[in-house]
Amino acid sequence: MNRKNPYIDYGKKILIFLLSVLILSVVVFYVARLAPGDPLVSYYGDRVEKMSMAERQWAEENLGLNDPIHVQYIRWLQNALKGNFGISFKYKTDVLEVIGGRLVNTLVLGGVGFVLIFVLALGLGILCAWHEEKWLDKLICKVGTIISCIPEFWLSLVLILIFAIHLRWLPSSGAYSIGKATDIPDRILHLILPMTIVVLNHLWYYAYMIRNKLLEEVRAEYVLLAKSKGLDKKSILFRHCLRNIIPSYLSIMAISVPHILGGTYIIETVFSYPGIGTLSYESARYQDYNLLMLLCILSGAVVILCNIISQTINEHIDPRMRESEVIETTEVTEIG
Amino acid sequence: MDDLILDVQHLTHQFPLTKNMVIKAVDDLSFQIRRGEIFGLVGESGSGKSTVARCVMNIYQPSSGRIFYNGIDVSDPKEFRKHKKMLQTSRQLIFQDSASSLNGRMKVADIIGEPMEIHHIKPNRGSVRAEAEFQLHSVGLDKSYLEKYPTELSGGMRQRVAIARALSMEPELLVADEPIASLDVSIQAQIINLFKHLQAEHGFSILFIAHDLSVVKYLCDRVGVLYRGKLVEVAPTKELFSSPAHPYTKSLLSAIPVPDPRRERARVLQEFDPALFGRDGEMVEISHDHLVRKGGKR
Amino acid sequence: MAELLEIKNLSVSFDTPQGELQAVRDVSFSLHAGEVLALVGESGCGKSVLCKSIMKLLHKNARITGGSILVDGIDITNYRQRDMERLRGRLFSMVFQDPMVSLNPTISIGEQIAEAVRVHHPKMEREAVHQRVIELMELVGITEPEQRYGQYPYHFSGGMRQRSVMAIALASNPKILLADEPTTSLDVTIQAQILDLLRDIQRKLGTATIFVSHDLGVVARVADRIAVMYAGKIVEIGTAEEIFYDPRHPYTWVLMRSLPSFAGEGEELYTIPGIPPTMIDLPPGDAFASRNEYALAIDYEEMPPMFQISDTHYAATWLLDERAPKVTPPMGGDFHG
Fold it and tell me: Domain B4-220 in CATH: superfamily?
């Protein structure tokens, strides 16, 4: 039986990734220009209204807006490939510069949040499965259901009210106190509330999934054999059941990265946290084409990448998927 | 000339494994079923017997070879489309695992009535429900079962319901794919008897697929033994049991347990060495109606 | 002979939404060292539940409602899961019906056997464990054990998987092996091979075996003694010869008659009339009475006791009472099929 060459496989995946991003960029480019609104407003502000036709024309030409769309797109693509994504109409600087600092903020909030969700969900799920149908399991499930039902923005406001306004323990907004941009403890303090919301918002779904998948495995026939070997509950749960659900958990978590990052957008708005979320909203609203393009491509790339990672995990961790099935009794014939 | 209801000629079906590998699940298979005959096809798991059933039922399109049903070449998609309605009602399939082949959310009455509604067939006994009740009765269940769900029934009863559903189409050919494999021995006997009665009553033909020779002895007129996608022996049942010719048939026969402790303990099994099996042998008629695969290099 | 396992008046019930389901009712039997006892009956007769209740492998809605289980003279009836973990594998272990699902699909065969070796010998050297696994694989007839060690269950055919399951079950030299329909889902030729393997191992290691099956034909090859179960009760128990050549219970008669091997040429296969009772709210008297063509009036009122026929042979039917009419059994005597 011939094995697939892994490098060819990875090469294919990278190609698929690049192609997807390219198609995405075309779609976003066209759709953004179809939306109503005047991109000059974001560049010139109120001055647009006082402009003469000639001035407008000159401004549009200056920004490259009066060429046919496909010409604009090709120009954008050529520049983009050189690493030049254009300037933001609103901030009037290189879009990379605009995004730079905020991207880090979002990645810290979403990334650390993601890791916390991953670990806590695993822990809670195992805890519930271990104490199946006992009071601890029931309590965790009930609390989870209730918290999941609360809209995140409302929960955010309640937490701000309690911890920032009444108790005055934590700051209510922003990523750092004024003048303390490099003060790490201060930044951590600012992160606590939004991070709590990100985690509380997604944790339960994954914890519940782990619990149910584990209980499904516990009821599998092979567990009876493992028990009759004399294995204890701990070994069965960790060495057998957990091992069997981890691949699917990893792949589901990989798909959910964009979901969790997307969730931070709203939270960023509530906490006035200077991240990508608030920026994306602005760029779409003010027809800040270059900024919008880069943001869309960035988030799109994350989604596509996570899907590919998830798929790769599925293919590689489970031994059943690693090789094609061996059929012993029927005749295998080589052709060609 | 025999009156054939099914004529399978050089049927081959391959499944692609990788780009340049295929699995020949069924390899150059030919057999005939005469009108009103019960033909048994016996083989172990992986021998391709279910693939044959699916090709005969047009679930799989054969890779090569032809299948004539009542003279119509059903392996030809054009011919199949032309006679689709007739083919789908007059041939009926019964699966091994009726627990998964019957919809658990449907009542027995609806399960039996469904094919009539799909094919817009006017029930012979007035309403669909009356027809369902009649068919249920003919498989030995009373009308109290009409309102039950498959999960409330035992394996044997579910299989009866599956048979009743097939009967409602008044089929000419019944293809039963291991219908008794997952049942207790004592229930297997009931279903075998039921098939026999129904066949005598309706006169349809049956392609009966099994993995075990012991059960086909009491049901089938002729038996074909399948090994690795190839027929190794076809013979009238009596002759196959009294004078098996192929070593694989012999090993299958020797594997049937004898319910006698002293004799059974002393009995030595005849194992069939797969290395002795030549794929390019040919079917030779050694006596009337008795074909055996002979020769061939390994 | 020493009695390795003694079951006394054991009853097991399940709590179901419809009420209490009595899966095992007042069952008593003993298992001697080095013998094969077969439990035979139709699905739902409680034979599998009986095995799992000995190993305490039943689900939470099942409970032992009466009786006791004695292993090597120790009463384990009230043992908790933690106590059972020490006994499982070492004292008794189990082989299950479907080898396609009883192995963990993501762990290699060798590792799964090694795990069973290590459970009761946690300090064993890596090399020694490996050596023992290879030994076990050879014992159960897995060819090329070194190459097969790292393969996964999906590489194995059904028969090979069942052999692996047996290697796991035998890893800690259990005194008792419980085999729950170990050959039912296998091909006939493979079934015969596994039966012979069971018999060989039992001879080589002297492991006492409880062999559960719905097929009397299969049982004839391996069993020293046979217990026939119906509706949660043992209705007849005796040596294989006694059960096959001198069966006394009407249920044993019909179970045997329904075997295809007993039907003559061109004859109709015998089928047992009626359907098995649901085990909720059982009627008084003998549960088999309504399907029994030899039923007496008393069968509908009073449960028959176990009548002794010989030192080893017992049957629970009123036909054995001295007041009962004499009936010529339709089955028994030497088989001339």
Answer: P-loop containing nucleotide triphosphate hydrolases (3.40.50.300)
Task: Provide the pLDDT for residue A326.
Answer: 42
Write out chain C residues lying below 8 Å of B262, CB-based: 241
> Domain tally for chain C?
1
Q: Mean pLDDT, to the nearest integer, of A266-271?
A: 84
Q: How far is B128 from chain C (nearest CA, A)?
A: 28
Contact residues on chain B for A331, CB-CB shorter than 8 A: 23-24, 27, 228-229, 279
| Residue B18: band (very low, low, confident or very high) from pLDDT cuts 50, 70, 90 | low
Residue A327's pLDDT is 41
How far apart, in Å, do the first and last CA atoms of chain B sit? Answer: 36
String of DSSP letters for A92-110: -SBHHHHHHHHHHHHHIII
The full DSSP string for B59-123 is: SS--SEEEEEETTEETTSHHHHHHTHHHHHHHEEEE-S-HHHHS-TTS-HHHHHHHHHHHTTPPP
Residue of C234, C244, C222, C228 lying closest to C95 (CA atoms): C222
**What's the average model confidence in pLDDT over B153-179?**
91
C66 to chain B, any CB pair closer than 8 A? The answer is no
> Does residue B82 or residue A48 have the better pLDDT?
B82
Residue of chain A minimizing CA distance to C166: A225
C114 belongs to a structural domain: no
* Nearest CB neighbour to A331, from listed B18, B44, B279: B279
Residue A240 is classified by DSSP as I
pLDDT digits (tens, 9 = 90+) for B210-260: 988 888 888 999 999 999 889 999 999 999 999 999 999 999 998 888 888
What is the topology classification, in CATH, of domain A95-322?
Answer: MetI-like fold (1.10.3720)
A326–C contact, CB cutoff 8 A: yes
**Region for residue C103 given its phi and psi (left: phi exceeds 0; alpha: psi -120 to 50; beta: otherwise):** beta
If one compares C246 and B273, the residue with the highest pLDDT of the two is C246
- Considering the domain boundaries, does residue C42 fall inside one? yes
**Distance to chain C for A323, nearest Cα, Å:** 10
Q: What is the CATH number for C17?
A: 3.40.50.300
**Cα–Cα distance list, B129 to B117, B118, B137, B150 (Å):** 11, 15, 12, 17
Between A2, A329, A330, which is nearest B18 by CB? Answer: A2
- Within a domain: C159: no
SS3 B178: coil
A331 — contact with chain B (CB < 8 Å)? yes
With contacts defined as CB-CB under 8 Å, which chain A residues touch B279?
331
DSSP A157-207: HHHIIIIIIIS--S--SSSS-TT-TT-HHHHHHHHHHHHHHHHHHHHHHHH
The answer to whether the Cα torsion of C233, C238, C244, C247 is positive or negative is negative
The Cβ of residue A182 has, within 10 Å, a number of other Cβ atoms equal to: 8
Domain boundary assignment for chain A: 6-81, 95-322
* Domain boundaries, given as residue ranges, for chain B: 4-220, 221-298
The pLDDT score that the predictor gives to residue C337 is 40
Q: Which of B50, B153, B184 to mutate to test the interface with C (most CBs of C within 10 A)?
A: B184
Residues of C whose CB is below 8 A from B220: none
The count of residues in chain C is 337
In a domain, C189, yes or no: yes
Range of the domain at C278: 3-98+178-320
Question: What value, to the nearest 5°, has the Cα angle with vertex C233 and ends C228 and C235?
Answer: 45
Which of C15, C83, C85 would best serve as a mutation to test chain A binding (most A beta carbons within 10 A)?
C85
